[in-house]
Design a protein that fits this description.
Number of domains: 2
Oligomer: single chain
CATH class of the largest domain: Alpha Beta
CATH architecture of the largest domain: 3-Layer(aba) Sandwich
Bound molecules: NADPH dihydro-nicotinamide-adenine-dinucleotide phosphate
Largest sheet: 7 strands, mixed
Number of helices: 16
CATH topology of the largest domain: Aldehyde Dehydrogenase, Chain A, domain 1
CATH superfamily of the largest domain: Aldehyde Dehydrogenase, Chain A, domain 1
Radius of gyration: 23 Å
Structural class: alpha/beta
Number of strands: 20
């Protein structure tokens, strides 16, 4: 099933190609079939894209916010009309089940375009009275902003970054992960169809080297990365050369705390969503599930039963719950963590291996896996696995749970399940994380700021907060009398 795009890149409102770039093969991870062949951007393509963005940006910034917003809203409409087709393409490229892509990918991209399209006319500065003289502030765009994406939510990441950037009057350049290059091009088509002037949303394909070239390109004012902590450190170092603005959405090892009084089925549902959705490939996953001892055994029994009822299968079948992992390499990495869990003494409750599926023998399948009796020092409790592997850890009291939950260099997300709301707020306030939930997990509406603390990130996506990361504040002092000078 081919899904070959017209060309590899999208620059200045049209597809562009340079076959001198390294070959990229996009593989359907359910079957192992190559579905598209592309080329990484050469330096000439990158320069062309930056130049197109630079040329288009001043006129865009000079438009009224509501006019910019109108185009974003139209783009959202195009995505919604094509949701079925885009979801199918995302499923082929990522392996994620169509049940998920129909609601969480292009639909989430459309949410971001609607939200920031609506906000575009409401981006304002403030007036500061000085008793005669006064200061006003202007929220000005940064210029050309670049986004570098991970492979788990390709079109969503492209839109979560470009929608606020464009709403604020910037031009945008996006590099998808080379594993999932296809839907960012469809977003570019949707923007063009909705009337976005040429050059304001460009896509360049490539491996890490292209990302690195964007992070250090002198024509780019800001870089926003969704990726792992090691890549984040490299992009930050590149951006530091000319003091670029950055947003870093990085990895995590987030805790979910389940207290004895929690609603058992909701807590299990939250933990399963927070470990298995997208075949476990979600940055904010709650992969350390701390369960208070009074509930622990019942929690594990029901968790095992519910996990074993998860249906793996053809990702395009609407009844399938879980597709394969994004690639064989990622699957093998996750299998290595599962082996480490067994070797280091964790108790395998369910899963723990690959799945054979008729007709999909070359797919990157892996079973949703639960380990119990996990201790804080085990590799599976310390490192981000980025696959469907849940670690359950027992705890006795609140103080202990909070201390253990915080004992990680990551700080992306956290969740608490309890019927005691005073405790819920008290515990959430003490957890070192940027994105948290009480009696829920992994819900990320566009209205809510999203991002991490500690090594999990810098800056926020979504919500009003994103506006601050795609503008700078200019303060303007206005004198209303003569200049009082001693000279
Ligand atoms: P990587 O960090 O490997 O890659 C992320 C992106 O950066 C890719 O486009 C990659 O290109 C590019 N890249 C790689 N090396 C460099 C470099 N030196 N300079 C600039 N760019 C570079 O992450 P994955 O794609 O494997 O995604 C998984 C990771 O992303 C996990 O750690 C996960 O937690 C995190 N993530 C964070 C989210 C958040 O919002 N906080 C959301 C989703 C995922 P290429 O792929 O071509 O190598």
């Amino acid at each position: 099933m081919m899904a070959q795009p017209t060309a590899s890149h999208f620059i200045a409102g049209a597809y562009a190609e340079d076959t001198a770039g390294d070959a990229i093969e996009s593989v359907n991870p359910a079957t192992g079939e190559v579905i598209a062949r592309l080329h990484a951007a050469t330096p000439a393509i990158i320069d062309q894209a930056v130049a197109a963005a630079k040329a288009a940006q001043p006129a865009w910034a000079a438009m009224k916010g509501v006019e910019r917003g109108r185009i974003l809203l139209r783009t959202a409409q195009v995505l919604r009309e094509r949701n079925a087709e885009l979801s199918r393409l995302e499923t082929l490229d990522t392996g994620k089940a169509i049940q998920e892509t129909l609601v969480a990918d292009a639909a989430s991209a459309a949410d971001a375009l609607e939200y920031f399209g609506g906000l575009a006319g409401a981006i304002t500065g403030e007036h500061i009275d000085l008793g005669g003289d006064f200061v006003y502030t202007r929220r000005e765009p940064l210029g050309v902003c670049a986004g570098i994406g991970a492979w788990n939510y390709p079109i969503q990441i492209a839109a979560w970054k470009s929608a606020p950037a464009l709403a604020c009057g910037n031009a945008f350049l996006f590099k998808p992960s080379e594993l999932t290059p296809l839907t960012a091009l469809k977003l570019a088509e949707a923007f063009a169809e909705a009337g976005l002037p040429a050059g304001l949303f460009n896509v360049v394909q490539g491996y890490g080297a292209v990302g690195a070239a964007l992070a250090t390109h002198p024509g780019i004012a800001k870089v926003s990365l969704t990726g792992s902590v090691p890549t984040g450190a490299k992009v930050l170092a590149g951006a530091a050369q000319d003091i670029k603005a950055v947003t870093m959405e990085l990895g995590g090892k987030s805790p979910i705390l389940v207290f004895d009084d929690a609603d058992l089925e909701s807590a299990i549902g939250g933990a399963m969503l927070g470990n298995f959705y997208s075949t476990g490939q979600i940055c904010s996953n709650g992969t350390r599930v701390f369960v208070q001892r009074g509930l622990h055994d019942r929690f594990l029994d029901r968790l095992k039963a519910r996990t074993e009822a998860i249906r793996l299968g053809d990702p395009l079948d609407p009844d399938t719950h879980l597709g394969p992992m994004v690639s064989m390499a990622q699957r093998d990495k996750v299998l290595g963590y599962i082996e480490a869990g067994k070797r280091e003494g964790a108790r395998l409750v369910t899963g723990g291996g690959v799945t054979e599926l008729q007709g999909f023998e070359n797919g990157a399948w892996i079973q949703p896996t639960v380990f119990a009796d996990v201790t804080d020092d085990m590799t599976i409790a310390r490192e981000e696995i980025f696959g469907p592997v849940m670690s359950v850890l027992a705890f006795d009291d609140e103080e202990e749970a909070v201390a253990r939950a915080n004992a990680t260099p990551f700080g992306l997300a956290a969740g608490v399940f309890t019927a005691d709301l005073a405790r819920a707020h008290r515990v959430i306030a003490r957890l070192e994380a940027g994105t948290t939930w009480i009696n829920a997990y992994n819900l990320t509406p566009v209205e809510a700021p999203f991002g991490g603390v500690k090594q999990s990130g810098i800056g926020r996506e979504n919500g009003h907060a994103a506006i601050e990361h795609y503008t700078h504040l200019k303060s303007v002092y206005v004198a209303t009398g003569p200049v009082d000078s001693p000279y």
